[in-house]
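Cross-posted from the bioinformatics board.
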Amino acid sequence: MNDDLEADVARMLARRASDLGPEAGLDPNDSLALAKEAMMRTRAAVSIATAAAIVVLGAAGAVVLANRPADEPGVATDPTPSAPAEPTPSVIDTEPVSLPVYYLGDTPRGPRLYREFRSVQTADALSAAVDLAVSESPSDPDYRTPWGEGVGATASYDGDVLTVDLLDDTAAGLHDRPAGMSPEESAMALEQVIFTAQAALGEGRVPVQFLLDGQRTDQVLGQPTAEPLSNGPVLETLSLVNITTPAEGSAVSGSLSLTGVANSFEANVVVTLQRTGSTEVDFQEGVMAEGWMGERLFPFAATIDLADLEPGSYVLTAMTDDPSGGAEGFGPFSDTKVITVD
Amino acid sequence: VSQRDDEFTAYVAARSSGLLRLAYVLTGNRGDAEDLVQVALTKAYVAWPRIQSEYAVDSYVRTCLVRAHFAGRRRRQLSLVRLATDPQDRGTDAALTAVEDRDHLWQALRGLPPRQRTVIVLKYFEDLDEASIASLMKCSRGTVKSQASKALKTLQNTHPIDANSTTDPQARR
């Protein structure tokens, strides 16, 4: 019964395509110039956008975080989508969105993932988040991205599988593990992209298929990628403590609103504040996270009174509790933010 | 000028017209179509050394183009590669619009969700089989089939009144 309709559709498409006229096409030299220019300018523009994003992060991040504590897409293991899921990938061009992006940082147990929120203007939050993960330096200088110069990424979701397409413009290529990179680091590089894509999508622990320049590939950085990958175990992949606010470089006055996620012994997170360069601790307090028994990170929050502190630059530290004092195990995980007290 | 640049410009000269038509029926808009083709060509240029045959380039560019369309639609890069089209070219868009407004089937196609429209274009414009569409769109053949049938149902319900139509639109009621 659809035969006529199908023929009509095919004819209509051919007719519309011919509307463009026989001369339609791109000028080859213009196209070449644009292709070369786009590669350069993409990197430059992303840097500018990020600089602007850091300025607005305080405001945009705070709004997002206000309705966030119960809904931590970056750490929840429950795949049930929680409403309202954010950030949604359908934000209009002019609205900056705050995107969760994971980066690598060193911990007593080797490289782990830390999460930052980055504010960008994009209609495709999913692609923007993974692109930030592989192409941008994090705001926190303690973190890093393991992907070299010349890597970009886009991502899409078909309802079952997240697909991350890595755009490879590196000298050595992304197929093999670079000589200077440990297997641990390259495995964590893929986890970084997987966790970022999952968090940006907000649909729980969706498997991720990697592509290299649009094609399926048997490996990325020497890690097998022929099949969609699930994320690594949360407690073996993420840092066990991660400050969400304040962001690195924030200026604060009066009181400081601290939020983060952790999985620490008896839910105790040790928070300290000390002047940059000083060994004297101006403030120390144990903060209770919402839990610690479970394969996930739990939110914590505290308000720190700054009235007694002299203005200046301070280091805010959140640490997991180590009841053995380092005698057993690996020692505490920590996350630090340099802030300015006005 | 490198060998890559020579091969790239030769490819654009030969194929950009066809790519632009595909992008146009996907996006329904000439400006977006030009952007989309350029985005796909840029990706191809980056990956050029790894794409061996001309057939592989075609398939690579088409895949980039379609995925950029239905996944991102307006990726950040698009704003960076907006082509400086001759204003006279843009002028013809007004004439096109007048024709388009009378073409209900075209309007209905433009109103479809991106993935459904993409399936329809790949099936009836590019003449791809379900397996090829499925691999291009990274979904199962079953999904291609169900998206196509959903799309056709929607198109049918718009009563295509079309000068060249071989069927009586009233008969569809």
